[in-house]
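Help!! Second protein's tokens look totally different from the first
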Amino acid sequence: MCASHREVAARRPRNTEQSQAQRLSWVKSSYSGGEGGECVEVAVSPGSVHIRDSKGTGRGFFTVSQATWSALSTTPVAVTEEH
């Protein structure tokens, strides 16, 4: 039986993830909030897209397939403003 990606990521040593993050080329979203908050950064590798919080780059990232990223990035989302 094969472990899920989440289970494998949970067992991966933290220093290995940090090392991988340093090797990736991260790009900040062009749809960042006006005050510099609510930003994500993405890095593309063969077959995968890695996503992290731009304000917490040392806190890790998660990985999705390129097909999943394509579906996520082309799906319209309702945006609400908090007052």
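Here's the second one for comparison:
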Amino acid sequence: MFLKIVFPIHLGVIGFLSFWNVKLDPISMITLILAIGFSIEFSAHVTYGFVSGPADLNPRERCIDTLEKLAWPMVHGSMSTILGVLVLAFIDSYMVRVFFKTIFLVLVIGVFHALVILPILLHDTVPYGEQLASKIYGHKQRIKNSFRREEIE
């Protein structure tokens, strides 16, 4: 599941960087490695929200519940980060512009994948996980949160 989300994000970022005439040199690779955290963070939040949701909901309802809780905070967080680094777009330095372009692309593509693609993948793969659990344990087993919220707080 991890590779199905993080790999396409970075493939898209590298593709758009080459479209913007950014060469794949050490500077662009370092900024890409630094930006990996953003794409992992977005995907991790959505996945955790999905898995830790109420166990009595079906996968579709879990996706809706997760997106209702996380979509706006993720969009606002990415927009504030873009606004924070927007001043870098006007600095006449190759390294600074590559940094801005990479961060911008990772944020936009990462939020899109986390809010659109990942819920679709989670919705489609959870029934297979439940089928596998029923084969292993011999009865219908729903994917549940392993922690209780009361225990954590």
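Reply: Different proteins will give different token patterns, so don't panic. The helical segments are 2-19, 26-51, 59-85, 94-137, 149-152.
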